[in-house]
Amino acid sequence: MRVLSGSARGVPLKTVPDMNTRPILDRIKKSLFSILETSTLILDARVADFYAGAGTQGIEALSRGAESCLFVERRADAADLLKENLAKTRLAEKAVVRCSDVSAVLPALLREHEPSRFDLILYDPPFVFSRESASRTEAEAEMALAGKLLFPGHARLVLRCEKKAEPPNPEGLSIVRHWTDGPHAFLFYGTHHV
Prior knowledge:
The protein is of the alpha/beta class. It has 5 helices and 7 strands, in the order αβαβαβαβαβββ. The model has no long low-confidence stretch (mean pLDDT 89).
């Protein structure tokens, strides 16, 4: 696992050494970030990396010229590795790390006097959308909240999920691009008033 491009290119990144997080493979990350750069969603962008793990996606965005990144990860061990990775890549001054549940951070962000807004939200939850259960409804509601933090217009929420999954349908968001690679799918959501 390493930074693929930009100011921190080639810097190796630590990841959580267990099966409860899903670090993105370098090959897939390269394809995803090629799409994001082509879509002008990285340079000078305000980024949020929700369910960040050790931060490999958000750090890639910062390395490639994003203005800032808010990382949210509930596991303390993963958040510690994320901070180490930010220090090693010299990108810590552009980052805010919150060790908390995404479901707790989103309402707090929306309650701020001037709510935070993002050009790009990287959304990589551990929830498996292909297993239908009551938690799908909760996940869609959480995505809808996250969508309220997007700048109107060009901004995107990018969900990583399983290719075989029925795409989530969060209120206020619509799929503008669907890209698959092996068993993985990336769904690019925009706000309805685009």
